[in-house]
């Protein structure tokens, strides 16, 4: 499951996009049939990954994924006109909302629950003094962070093998700041817990190693998360957990490595039962 670069609707999506736009003026609901189908299509186009952190969206259930409005659809609680039209960074969680784009498909993307919670009601329009309602959806240049429908993720944010996020542009750095992708504690809850669940579900030491290696290969979490999990959940030294994970990731490269790997598995399969 590779990471996605840009959300690209195709010509075959036009009927669905028009159906969603035709809902304008109605009360927002994720139970609307067209919205359900759009949510499914967005997950496909995003390779089942969060639009902000690229974490896997492993289930189409509440709590795993959110249908995110890039420009908030509603006015925030107790937002005054002065606060809602201010361009000061510390006032951007007060917004007048953009009801005109409630059913605009390019204002919608799939995010994980955690990123959606941290992003909250943050308003990314650069110039919020512009008269409302807006006549058309803003271009990427009119937003303080990158737009996943029109810009490549990797242009704005790079992710290293340990899921360290680096902003390559102001737009990328804005996403990292608002979704707290700089915070090791936040990332630990997001990725380390996923590794722990996989390890706990395994019925044997070998299954745990296989599950963790698969997670690394699918970019569900980092090698560091897998090593930490194997050491903690199976009660073995970190150095040995690292050696086993590395051998599992490369054991097919030589007969000797494969033998060493299975010798380690046999040792811990017995000692950790």
User: Could you spell the SSE succession in H and E letters?
Assistant: HHEHEHHEEHHHHHH
Beginning-to-end CA distance, first to last residue: 32 Å
Widest sheet: strand order?
A: 1-2
> Helical segment tally?
11
What is the overall silhouette? elongated
- Please estimate the helix content: 40-55%
Count of distinct structural domains: 2
Largest sheet: 2 strands, antiparallel
Task: Please mark out the parts with pLDDT under 50 across 5 or more consecutive residues, or reply none.
Answer: none
Which oligomeric state applies? single chain
What is the radius of gyration computed over CA atoms, rounded to a whole number of angstroms?
Answer: 22 Å
In percent terms, what proportion of residues is strand? 5-15%
Give the beta-strand count. Answer: 4
Overall residue-averaged pLDDT value: 92
Structural class call reads mainly alpha
Organism: Variovorax paradoxus
Protein name: HNH endonuclease
């Amino acid at each position: 499951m590779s990471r996605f670069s840009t959300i690209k609707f195709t010509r075959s999506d036009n009927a669905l996009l028009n159906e969603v736009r035709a809902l304008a003026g109605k009360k927002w609901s994720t139970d609307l049939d067209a919205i359900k189908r759009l949510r499914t299509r967005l997950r496909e186009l995003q390779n089942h990954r969060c639009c902000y952190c690229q974490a896997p969206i492993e289930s189409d259930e509440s709590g795993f994924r959110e249908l995110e409005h890039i420009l908030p659809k509603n006015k925030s609680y107790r937002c005054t006109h002065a606060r809602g039209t201010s361009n000061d960074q510390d006032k951007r969680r007060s917004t007048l909302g953009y009801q005109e784009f409630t059913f605009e498909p390019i204002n919608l993307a799939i995010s994980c629950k955690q990123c959606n919670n941290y992003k909250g009601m943050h308003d990314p329009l650069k110039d919020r003094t512009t008269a409302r309602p807006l006549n058309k959806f803003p271009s990427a240049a009119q937003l303080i962070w990158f737009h996943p429908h029109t810009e490549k993720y990797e242009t704005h944010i790079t992710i290293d093998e340990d899921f360290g996020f680096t902003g390559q542009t102001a737009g990328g750095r804005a996403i990292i700041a608002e979704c707290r992708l700089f915070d090791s504690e936040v990332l630990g809850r997001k990725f380390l817990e996923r590794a722990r669940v996989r390890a706990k579900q395994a019925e044997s030491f070998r299954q745990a190693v296989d599950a963790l290696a698969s997670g690394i290969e699918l970019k569900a979490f980092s090698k560091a998360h897998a090593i930490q999990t194997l050491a903690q959940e199976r009660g073995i030294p970190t150095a040995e957990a690292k050696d086993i994970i590395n051998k599992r990731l490369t054991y097919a490269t030589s007969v000797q490595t494969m033998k060493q790997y299975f010798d380690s598995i046999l040792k811990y399969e017995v000692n950790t039962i």
